[in-house]
Amino acid sequence: MSEKSVESLSEAEAAAELARLAEELAEHDRRYYAEDAPTITDAAYDAMRRRNLAIEQRFPHLIREDSPSKRVGAEVSAKFGKITHAVPMLSLDNAFADDDVVEFVGRIRRFLRLGADTPIAITAEPKIDGLSLSLRYERGRLVSAATRGDGQVGENVTPNARTVADIPNVLSGDFPDVLEVRGEVYMSHADFAEINRRNAEAGKPLFANPRNAAAGSLRQLDASITASRPLRFFAYAWGEISEMPADTQMGMVAAFRSYGFRTNPLMKLFDSVEGLLSQYHLIEADRASLGYDIDGVVYKVDRLDLQQRLGFISRSPRWAIAHKFPAEKATTILTGIDIQVGRTGALTPVARLEPVTVGGVVVTNATLHNEDYIKGIGNSGQAIRDEEHDIRIGDTVIVQRAGDVIPQILDVVMEKRPADATPYVFPIRCPACDSHAVREEGEVVRRCTGGLICPAQAVERLRHFVSRNAFDIDGLGEKQIEFFFHAEDPALRVRSPADIFTLRRRQEGSLTKLENIEGFGVTSARKLFAAIDDRRQVELSRFLFALGIRHIGETNAKRLARHYISFDAFRKAGSEAVIPEGKGDKGNAAWQELTAVSGIGAIVAEAVVEFFAEEHNRQVVDALLAEVTPLDEERIGDVSSPVSGKTVVFTGSLEKMSRDEAKAMAEKLGAKVAGSVSKKTDLVVAGPGAGSKLKTATELGIEVISEDQWFERVNQAG
C-alpha cells in the first residue's frame, strides 16, 4: 500500500490511486458483507477512505465517488421480513487522531462560515459496540422494530425487540404521535460471561464477543430465544417524528429519558475541541470499568437547525463523527498467500494465518493490499517498514484489528523468521485463466488481461450485477451465480446479465428443470423466477451501477441518473462525447456536458466514453435492454420551487453561505448543480471575483444573478 503523501502525488498518480482505492474498497465490502470473510481491519478500511477523500480534495477534477466506503451496513437476510426506513439509517465517518477531531470542527466552521471564536456546542457520548435498532411508536405504542440493514431497508425484528427490558412497549410522558427512536442493542460483560458459562455447561458453542452475542440474540426467528438472553438498549437518535420535542441533541435525548428509555449517562455537552478531547481520553481511560463494550466516542453538533444546514455527504452526516479508540494487535504465523481476482481483473493477495484471537475475535485471514505491500515498499519505491523488510510465508506477523473483525498485517517479527523463508513471488499470470497479469505504469494493482475469457472476472461481474445496490435479485447470491455460470446445460447457463432474464424461457423448452436440481426444488425455483421478473423494471441509478462501468459506483451512478434522467440520454451522451486530445482541446458539447455533471470529472467521463466505444459492451447492453427497462429517474427535491429541474452553476465568492451549503440548498430544491457552464446551464449565481464561468455565461446568453437574488428567488418556493 502506497505511503506517498497526497501532497506529493502527480495527477497521473492521483488518478491511479483513486482507481485503486475504489476497487480495493469495493472488494473488501463484498468480502465483509457477502462472504463473511473480511481481509482488512476497520481502521485500514477507514484510512483508505480518508486517503481517497484527501486525494479528491486536492484533485477535484478527478473526483470519483464509487468507493464502497460510501455504502452503509449490509444486505438484509432473507429469513426476516423487510422494513423500509422512513428516514435512512446512515453510518458515521471516523476519526482516529486528535487532529482529525480538530479538522472535523474546522470543517463545520467553514461550512457554516463561522469565525474561529464563535462557540459551537457539540455533544460527546460513548460509541456502543452493539447492533443498531430503529423503534417505531404510534400513539405511544411500539408498532415495529428494524435493524439498520443496508441503511434503506432493515430486518423486521419487532417480536424480538418487545422482549428487551430496556425497550418500552408503551411510552410514558408527553410523546409525539409518531416517533422513531434509534439506539444500540448490546450485552454487558457480566451477562456475556454468564451466557457463555451456561453454553459451556450445556455443551453449546460459545459466543466470540458481546457484540456477536447481542446481534445473534436479537436476530432470532424464535422470539422466546431472544427473551432468554439478557439484552440491553441505549437510545441516542431518531428517525421519523411527527413533532420535535426539542431543538437540540441534548434536549432530544432528555425527551427520550422522559418517555421511558435508558440513555447513556456519560453524554456531555462541550463548546470547545479541548473539551471534546478531554472527554474522549477520560472515557478511554475508564473504558475497562464501564461494564460494556465501546469502541470510541461520538461527537454531534448540538443545535438541530445547524444539523439541518450541515446535512449529509453520501453515507454520513456532516454534523457528526465517531472518534475511534486505538486498534488491538496480536502475533501469529503466516501460513500462505492466496490471490483473488476481482471483476476488473485486479489480483489481490490475501494472507492465510494460524488462527489467533485479537480483541475477542478469532482471525484467520488478513489483507496484504498488493504486491508492493508484500515487498515492503510504496509505489514510488520508498520503504514502508522501519527495517525495510518484506513479508514471507512462514513469518511471525503482527496482526491488527480495530473495532470490527477485519484484520490487516502490520509488520513482521524478524527475529522469528525461518531460515528457509524465501521472498514471495507475485504471480504474473492469472490464477483463474492463466492469462498474463500486467501492471500498468503508475498503478499498484496487477490485472489479469484475460477479460472476457477469465471466469473469475466474469463471475465477479455477474455478482456485481445482482448485488444489493444494483439489481438486488433475491435468491441469486454468490453460490447461485457460481452454479449457473459453470452449468454445462445451456438451459441453466448464465454467462451475461441478459441470461438471467431468459433463464425461465430456456427452462420451459428444456428437459432440464431447475426444480429438479439439488439445492433448489419447486418452491425455491418459483421464488427465484418471481424475483427475477420483479426486476424487469429497475431504477436508472441501479441500472447504471449494475453495468459495472469502471469508476461508476453508487454515488456517481446517482449523479448521472439525476442529470440525464433517462438511459437513452445517458447512452447518447456516452456514445457522442469525444475525449479531448490535448490541453487546448475542450472536447465536443456532449463531453463538456458530461464533465460538467457535479462530481463527474474527466477520469469518470473517459470510462463512460470507452465503455460505449466497445462493441461487446454495446451488445451486452442491447441484449439486457431487450429483457429489462431502466426507469426514468424521478426528479428530486421540491418540484414546486422556481429552480426545480434547472441546471445551476455557482461561481465567485459567496458571502452568505459556503459553496457546499449552496450546492446542498440547490439540490434540495430540485436543481442540478454543475461544475462548469455550458449551453445546458439555466442559471449562474455569481459572487465577487467570478471569472471565466461568468464570461462564458455572458457569451452564451445564460441568466446571471447575484447571491442576494438567488435567495430572493428560492424563497418564492414557500
Note down, in words, how this protein is organized.
This protein is of the alpha+beta class and 718 residues long. It has five domains: 156 residues, Beta Barrel (OB fold (Dihydrolipoamide Acetyltransferase, E2P)), CATH 2.40.50.140; 233 residues, DNA ligase/mRNA capping enzyme (D-amino Acid Aminotransferase, Chain A, domain 1, 2-Layer Sandwich), CATH 3.30.470.30; 62 residues, no CATH class; 93 residues, DNA polymerase, domain 1, CATH 1.10.150; 71 residues, 3-Layer(aba) Sandwich (Rossmann fold), CATH 3.40.50. Helices cover 36% and strands 19% of the residues. The strands form eight sheets. A five-stranded mixed sheet has the order 2-13-10-3-9. A five-stranded antiparallel sheet has the order 16-15-14-17-18. β4 and β5 form a beta hairpin. α1 runs antiparallel to α2, α16 packs across α17 and α18 crosses α20. It is globular. About 2% of the residues have low confidence.
Please mark out the parts with pLDDT under 50 across 5 or more consecutive residues, or reply none: 32-38, 70-77
Largest sheet: 5 strands, mixed
Q: Radius of gyration from the CA trace?
A: 27 Å
Query: Please, what is the average pLDDT?
Result: 86
CATH-defined superfamily of the largest domain? DNA ligase/mRNA capping enzyme
Q: Which CATH first-tier class of the largest domain would you pick?
A: Alpha Beta
- Helix % is 25-40%
How much of the sequence is in beta strands?
15-25%
The largest sheet has its strands arranged as: 2-13-10-3-9
Envelope shape: globular
What count of helical segments does DSSP give? 24
Question: Into how many domains do the coordinates divide?
Answer: 5
CATH architecture of the largest domain: 2-Layer Sandwich
